[in-house]
């Protein structure tokens, strides 16, 4: 099971997460308390492993701006977390994650319209399009089924509930942001506990996997 830590804003946290075995890091370029500048993201990404997924998160952004961020920072996956259409997603030459806000089974009907590499299932919209720390009814997605889709599960995940979420949804990857924070800041202890829970490591194992 793969893990994405979203809302990275500093190098120390990024490198620690990599050492702990994270598979993807998310950098938010949209309105958010975790928003990062192009220059800061570039400085972090340039020292990260090449095979790590470095995901740029955008909300209803112009294609030209997204491509500028990709070119300047080294982002290698684009996450579209707004009202982007299937054609918007198809217009990029690199892998795309399309985020869907799930409030009911009707919201999952959109899934078949998108042919992008990944679909991210998130909780309904709050103040921001993501990172609001709220879960949705996972059984809705489980009943609908998304065979053939690389599903990324987000929305209110923590070390305490992620095992249950994985059991119900069986996603390709889980995505956490506020669930590994203390007072709005990423917490290394919470990141480690989350990754260890997802990867099935024993709590007393103090083994970091360098990537």
From TrEMBL:
GO terms for biological process: L-tryptophan biosynthetic process. Its EC number is 5.3.1.24. Pfam families: PRAI. Keywords: Amino-acid biosynthesis, Aromatic amino acid biosynthesis, Isomerase, Tryptophan biosynthesis. Gene3D superfamilies: Aldolase class I. The keyword Cell membrane does not apply. It catalyses: N-(5-phospho-beta-D-ribosyl)anthranilate = 1-(2-carboxyphenylamino)-1-deoxy-D-ribulose 5-phosphate. One of its GO terms (molecular function) is phosphoribosylanthranilate isomerase activity. It is an enzyme of class 5 (isomerase). This is N-(5'-phosphoribosyl)anthranilate isomerase. Pathway: Amino-acid biosynthesis; L-tryptophan biosynthesis; L-tryptophan from chorismate: step 3/5. HAMAP family: PRAI (MF_00135). The keyword RNA-binding does not apply. It comes from Cytobacillus praedii. The lineage of its organism: Bacteria, Bacillati, Bacillota, Bacilli, Bacillales. Belongs to the TrpF family. Residues 3-196 form the N-(5'phosphoribosyl) anthranilate isomerase (PRAI) domain. InterPro entries: Aldolase_TIM, PRAI_dom, RibuloseP-bd_barrel, TrpF_fam. NCBIfam families: PRK01222.1-4.
């Amino acid at each position: 099971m793969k893990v994405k830590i979203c809302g990275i804003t500093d190098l120390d946290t990024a490198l620690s997460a990599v050492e702990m075995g994270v598979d993807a890091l998310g950098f938010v370029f949209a309105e958010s308390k975790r928003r990062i500048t192009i220059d800061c993201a570039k400085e972090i990404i340039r020292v990260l492993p090449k095979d790590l997924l470095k995901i740029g998160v955008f909300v209803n952004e112009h294609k030209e701006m997204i491509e500028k961020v990709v070119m300047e920072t080294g982002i290698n996956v684009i996450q579209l977390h707004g009202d982007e259409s299937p054609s918007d997603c198809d217009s990029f030459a690199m892998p795309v994650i399309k985020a869907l806000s799930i409030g009911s089974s009707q919201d999952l009907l959109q899934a078949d319209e998108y042919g992008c590499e990944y679909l991210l299932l998130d909780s309904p919209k709050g103040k921001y399009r993501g990172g609001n720390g709220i879960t949705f009814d996972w059984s809705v997605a489980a009943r609908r089924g998304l065979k053939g889709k690389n599903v990324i599960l987000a929305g209110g995940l923590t070390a305490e509930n992620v095992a249950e979420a994985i059991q119900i949804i069986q996603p390709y990857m889980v995505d956490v942001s506020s669930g590994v924070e203390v007072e709005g800041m990423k917490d290394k202890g919470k990141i480690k506990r989350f990754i260890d829970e997802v990867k099935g490591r024993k709590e007393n194992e103090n083994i970091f996997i360098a990537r």
